[in-house]
Amino acid sequence: MTNSSGQVVIRVSCTIAGDTLTLVNREAEEHDCPDQKGVYTINFKDNGFTLNLVNDTCEGRAHALAGVTWIESTKNERPGLTASKN
């Protein structure tokens, strides 16, 4: 994951199985929770998706991701995703 300047903030491994996303942070840095697993269901709607918390022992990640709607963005001609908290 990167910040708005493109600087890597968190390195994450993820897997998707059906509608379930599993995340594991890989490095202990500023926003750490190394090796702690987070599980979310993915709900697709229109041109975006929302992550719903199933279980995540990393409180900061859970707060940042749960209930956020991600939509496709082409801001500054750099394709990617933009998030908005419901």
What does this structure look like?
The two termini are 20 Å apart. It contains one helix and six strands; from the N terminus they run ββββαββ. With 86 residues, it is mainly β. It has one domain. The model has no long low-confidence stretch (mean pLDDT 78). It is globular, with a radius of gyration of 13 Å. The protein has a six-stranded antiparallel β-sheet with strand order 1-2-3-4-5-6. Helix content is 8%, strand content 49%. The longest helix is centred in the C-terminal third of the chain and has 7 residues, at 59-65. A hairpin with a 6-residue loop joins β5 and β6 (80-85).
List keywords for this structure.
8% helix, 86 residues, mainly beta, 6 strands
Topology, element by element:
Layout: E1 12-17, E2 20-25, E3 37-45, E4 48-56, H1 59-65, E5 68-73, E6 80-85
Antiparallel strand pairs: 1-2, 2-3, 3-4, 4-5, 5-6
Structural class: mainly beta
Large-scale geometry: globular
Number of strands: 6
Order of helices and strands: EEEEHEE
- Total helix count? 1
The N- to C-terminal Cα distance equals 20 Å
The number of domains is: 1
Average pLDDT level: 78
Query: How large, in whole angstroms, is the Cα Rg?
Result: 13 Å
Question: Widest sheet: strand order?
Answer: 1-2-3-4-5-6
Helix content: under 10%
Low-confidence segments: none
Characterize the largest beta sheet: strand count, sense, and whether it forms a barrel. Answer: 6 strands, antiparallel
Strand content: over 45%
